[in-house]
Write a structure and sequence with these properties.
The chain is an alpha+beta fold. The chain contains 2 helices and 9 strands, in the order βαββββββαββ. This is arginine decarboxylase.
């Protein structure tokens, strides 16, 4: 595997699914079939916070992700957070995700607590945690999605 990229986005649309698609487009991964995995970072794989994904392969292929995503119908707010930490510089690590119809400080606090709990379950010596948060205000009559993804490597053919 090459690199795990942290990407994030927000989208607004007339339906929940369309707002999710718009948020994926904002993050640069709208043309892939996402496959969610649990939150373990393999050893020796770099993690880069890039904001928007580069080209990761042909449209329609499978893309492996850890996803923090929340959608709301406005008015309101929505936040998503992804935290991660590694054992040493290149050891294995963890992602933890939280997403909700709340403020960004709340999801950041909760994702840090979740990550700490996951670290306590393992006998690894973890480095400092990192956190990416996406937040948006939802206007009345519009669906809004905020998401943060850890994208594992490049896309792969489904068939």
């Amino acid at each position: 595997m090459s690199t795990i990229r942290i990407v994030q986005g927000t989208g607004e649309a007339p339906t929940a699914m369309a707002s999710y698609d718009a948020a994926l487009a904002d993050a640069g991964v709208e043309n892939y079939n996402l496959v969610s995995v649990s939150s373990v970072i393999p050893a020796d794989v770099p993690v880069e916070d890039v904001g928007t994904a580069p080209e990761l392969g042909p449209a329609g292929e499978r893309l492996t992700v850890v996803e923090a995503c929340a959608t709301t119908a406005g008015p309101g707010q929505v936040s998503a957070a992804l935290a991660w930490s590694r054992a040493d510089d290149s050891g294995p690590g963890l992602f933890y995700e939280v997403a909700d119809e709340t403020d960004p400080e709340d999801v950041e606090h909760r994702v840090r607590k979740g990550l700490a709990a996951g670290q306590d379950l393992r006998e690894w010596s973890f480095g400092e945690p990192r956190v990416a948060v996406e937040h948006s205000q939802a206007e009345s009559g519009v669906y809004t999605t905020s998401l943060v993804l850890a994208v594992y490597g490049e896309s792969e053919p489904i068939c």
